[in-house]
Each structure stands twice: as structure tokens, then as C-alpha cells.
Write a structure and sequence with these properties.
By secondary structure, the protein is mainly alpha-helical. It has three helices and two strands, in the order E-E-H-H-H.
Length: 85
């Protein structure tokens, strides 16, 4: 059995899974992105792997990492300005 993917999230309200990166950064509606996934029978076998290897997912993970780098720089910059006064 496949180890749960760190990007996979579950909504109890929707009884569906989604990709945390693609939900926020996807420009297009993709499986696990803005479209929730409810076909549990195929989830572990094929759909998770297909999504994880898709160009859209890889691009959205990169966008997330780039966003976090920018946020970290802004936080450090604000901290440095505060320390100067």
C-alpha cells in the first residue's frame, strides 16, 4: 500500500480529497486541484500517482515553494527594519 502523500488533503464536508498545492495555485481545473476527488476505488492505484507526476501538479508545487520563499524574505525584511529603530 502506498504511503499517504503529503500534498493530499481530505474534506469531511465534501467527503472528497484534494491537492493542497493545486487547490491554491492551479490556474486550470485539474483532478485533485479545484475539482475534488471522490472515486476512492481508483485513488491509491492510479489517480494519486498520475496527479503527482502531472505537469500541472509539479508547476503548482514550485509556485507554492516560490511563494514561501518570497514570504520568508518579506518577513526577514520587516524584522530587520524593526531592529534598526
Amino acid at each position: 500500500m502506498r504511503k499517504l502523500d503529503p500534498w493530499l488533503r481530505y474534506s469531511q464536508i465534501e467527503d472528497a480529497a484534494y491537492c493542497k498545492y493545486c487547490m491554491i495555485f492551479a490556474g486550470n481545473v485539474t483532478l485533485f486541484g479545484k475539482a475534488l476527488f471522490t472515486e476512492w476505488k481508483n485513488a491509491i492505484c492510479s489517480s494519486l500517482k498520475l496527479h503527482e507526476e502531472s505537469k500541472d501538479h509539479i508547476d503548482d508545487v514550485k509556485a507554492s515553494n516560490d511563494f514561501l520563499v518570497v514570504c520568508e524574505k518579506v518577513t526577514k525584511s520587516k524584522w530587520l527594519r524593526t531592529e534598526l529603530y
